[in-house]
Design a protein that fits this description.
single chain, Rossmann fold, 5-stranded parallel β-sheet
């Protein structure tokens, strides 16, 4: 399957993507992952991206599209791919459409995971992350706490609340999403590709995707 996953921060895109990869071997691709991969591989595009990242600037769309184009042509994408958190803006979506046409790749759908704001705030403010950059295990103080409070089950490092997961920071992230990324729903509706799933359960989202693919 070839999908784009849309939804606000905390909507569960990452969890859904992980479950879908287990279903049919599609690969999960996020902008952060491909940028880190290109930087680690030391590619020319990766070096250019790193210069922007080191300066604390956003990596320009042109550069991201170049890295994305290379990533989508790698052999592991032949089974399918799930774009998690990409595209983020209408210009990125338009550039992606052109690129996929050039590569002869056809999207199955764009899935908009619609979760109420209060649920998102509750999920993210109770989320905790392992402070070890090599581990980054994710917990939730309500639904999935570490066995020992404040200590990662996997590596024993301290478990912390990320700075971007305080209520104030999340509210700002949601405002940014509504302003810049939410318009993508309309873009993919016009393309006849958007499926909106109003669900707080990852399983319900997966079932809706399966139903659409089978239709």
């Amino acid at each position: 399957m070839k999908l784009i996953l849309l939804g606000a921060p905390g909507a569960g895109k990452g969890t859904v993507a992980k479950l879908l990869t287990e279903m049919d071997g599609s690969v999960q691709i996020s902008t952060g992952d491909i940028l880190r991969g290109a930087v680690q591989a030391g590619t020319e595009l990766g070096k250019q991206a790193q210069a922007y990242m080191n300066a604390g600037d956003l990596v320009p769309d042109e550069l991201i599209m170049g890295i994305m184009g290379k990533r989508l042509q790698e052999p592991d994408c032949e089974k399918g791919f799930l774009l998690d958190g990409f595209p983020r803006t209408i210009p990125q979506a338009e550039a992606l459409k052109v690129m996929l046409d050039e590569l002869g790749i056809k999207l199955d759908m764009a899935v908009n995971i619609d979760v109420p704001r209060d649920v998102i705030l509750d999920r993210l403010t109770t989320r905790r992350t392992c402070s070890n950059s090599d581990c980054q295990a994710i917990y939730n103080v309500k639904s999935n706490p570490p066995k020992v409070e404040g200590v990662c089950d996997k590596c024993g490092s301290p478990v912390i609340q990320r700075e971007d997961e305080t209520e104030e920071a999340i509210s700002h992230r949601l405002e940014t999403y509504n302003e810049k990324t939410a318009p993508l729903i309309g873009f993919y509706e016009n393309e006849g590709l958007c499926v909106t799933v109003k669900a707080t359960s990852s399983e319900d989202v997966i079932n809706a995707i399966k139903a659409r693919l089978a239709a």
